[in-house]
Amino acid sequence: MDKQLDKLNKLEDKRQLETINLIASENYVSPAIREAMSSRLTNKYSEGYPGARYYPGNQYVDEVETLAQKEALKTFNLKNSTWGVNVQPYSGSPANFAVYAAVLEKNDTALGMALSSGGHLTHGFKVSHSGRFFNFFQYGVDKNGLLNYEEVENLAQKYKPRLIVCGASAYSRIINFIKLSKIAKKYNTLLMVDIAHIAGLVATGVHPSPFSAKSGQALADIVTTTTHKTLRGPRGAIIFGRAELMPAINKSIFPGHQGGPHNHQTLAIAQAFIEAQTPKFKQYTVQIIKNTKTLAKELQKLNFNIVSGGTDNHLFLLDLTNKGVSGGDAEKLLEKNNIIANRNTVPNDPRKPFDPSGIRIGTPACTTRGMKEKEMKKIAQLIDKALCGQDVKNEAKKLAMEFPTP
Ligand code: DSN
Questions:
Q1: CATH superfamily of 279-401
Q2: Given this model, what pLDDT does residue 80 score?
Q3: Is 244 annotated as contributing to ligand binding?
Q4: What region, left, alpha or beta, does residue 375 occupy, with left being phi > 0 and alpha being psi -120 to 50 degrees?
Q5: Domain 33-276 is of which CATH architecture?
Q6: Are the beta carbons of 339 and 382 closer than 8 angstroms?
Q7: Taking every annotated instance into account, which residue ranges of this chain make up the domain Serine hydroxymethyltransferase-like (predicted)?
Q8: Closest ligand 1 atom to 92 CA
Q9: Is residue 92 in contact with ligand 1, taking CB distance under 6 Å?
Q10: Is the pLDDT reported for residue 64 higher than 90?
Q11: Ligand 1 centroid to residue 25 C-alpha, Å
């Protein structure tokens, strides 16, 4: 590698090693996944799908992609007679847009959770192309910070959407897919669930499934997810759809949106799914929840306000209003002390999104490094001290380095 690039690459390794990472959407992949990402599969063009490519030389690529599909379905206990999966999306945002283009016409009406309430840009926010090309109405959370299912129903009744999108990037509570599915069925609309944040938790059953209820009742029609958050795979995304929707979804990905799939990424995604089916991964996701709950409780003891009063998953939002520090300043103070967490709007935030009132805290990355409840208690103290202006850099660095990155 070029000397300067090699230096930067090593500096990033060092930064990761020395930092306590509380960014809820980040994680560390296994050495096997890093190996897959640097494989020679990156050299290959393979527009099309297994058995129907526009280039020769794809015998092994076909097997890799078929295997990735099989492992994806297995990870979420799905039968391939009911569900199909596309493993080619480059990442989450294009995956979501490809779904909209597959099941909606331009300017069709849809519902999505507002970004300011914990939703995602691609769920119809006005500056995202999802909000530009489709007529999205946005729902949010109620006064207790809980997803406002009543608002979803009211909007569905009023606007008769063709699609209801749910899923979040800053929501700390269990999402009730049964309720959402009932609304979708009542108003005869498709239900798409974006489980990017909680995919790892769904895979092991520590968060209810959007695919079907315990009773066997069918829920979502389409489920999208990135592969690099709680699922702990490489950057990428996949789309699950009910079998009858898959031809349109596949066409929307290729040739609709993308050219050649990133085959090294597909290899790494298959590896991630194989890892996600192990008992070790299940234990990992159970520990994520224990860690998040512990960290939230410890911060509450230190007079921090948590949106919705707590957490059921891998993250929570701190509303820093009572601490007299903005989310932007908190992010900087933490980073100065080798703790990384991103600023975030809180519901009904009086401040602007560029420097909002909150900070989002997640534990998937620390949990991958082996941290447990004891370390969470310590991290709560470090956050408190750092936000009071104390210097805890060396303490944070020492703690991070006791738990090396994989
Ligand atoms: N940027 C991701 C997150 O941080 O949640 C979502 O795309």
A1: Aspartate Aminotransferase, domain 1 (3.90.1150.10)
A2: 85
A3: yes
A4: alpha
A5: 3-Layer(aba) Sandwich (3.40)
A6: yes
A7: 2-383
A8: 7
A9: yes
A10: yes
A11: 6
